[in-house]
Amino acid sequence: MVDKSPKREISDVFVEQLKSGVLLPFLDRVRHDDTLSLEIRNGYVDLYYRGGRLLGIKSNAEATKFSAEFDKHYFDGAKGYRPEPPSLPRGSIEREANAQEWVDAFAAIKQAMDIRFSENTKIEKEYQQAVVRDNNRHSTGELFDYVVIDVEYVQSAYAIPGQRTETGYRFDMVGFRWPVAGGSRANSKVTPVIMEMKAGDGAITSSRKGEKPDDLSPGLVKHVLDFERFLTPEPGEKISKPFDLLRQELAAMFETKKRLKLPSLPKRMTERVTITKDDVSERPEVLFVLANHQPSSKRLKNELEELAKRELPLREHADYSVATVSFAGYALFADKVIPLDEFIAKLP
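^ thats the sequence. predicted structure below, dont judge the formating
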């Protein structure tokens, strides 16, 4: 079924049900379990574990009744090892006790996901959640220059009236750089950041899938093509409408997560700034986060050379960069982020 909802937001009533209503057990658990993250969707929320969707929580139009959705394929397990699946709570959530029953089942659900992931890996998605944990949570999250606002971001193909796309847009992570380049933390001005995670050299290459030159697998070249399509404005416009919607959504999601007092936002931001769409820069940053690149592999060099051959208009609509780290980890410091053309020039 196509999700035609245009925005990533939940109603005020939904927020209150999470803060003090029937959904409070879910919020309490997320606040005390750093293996979980709560992400805002188009009228519902998803709980993620190791990069997989542990539970979806949806509401009726009035946000008075809710349903919990769990993907039972996780119970398929691994070859030769399929523990007996537990009996799950009923899907409808009408009372706080119903939500608590699901929270009590999280241990069994997590175990099922662990076993499933042992053979059906989601390592790239798991690394995304590691980026969130390193840059958003705990004392480490108070030090860094980037914050992730959403993972597995999707903008509906129907989001912009009159500009329907074939598939919509999908990005690994979206968030903020704060402060903006050359700025200070004395104000709320932020740079919107689209982050693309690549784990291993096999994910870097944009291989041809069909006869059309741009019919490619999702490597770096393919992603740049998609970013430019997303960011290129219509004639006479300053910025593209899809990107302008993202700016609005980022500000709204930040403020909603702040209202929920989620630990996945650093206190340095939640206690000091209020972000509106006007605080979100009209020029974004596109940040590639490359994990586990093998130095002796030529795939990265070949892909970036292919990017250069295409003479794509880099930096026309965004500042393209590559994240590097100080020693190991996923901490994103502004002075460790290298402009893409400079990164290409430094490759051996």
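The chain has two domains: 12-119, 123-346.
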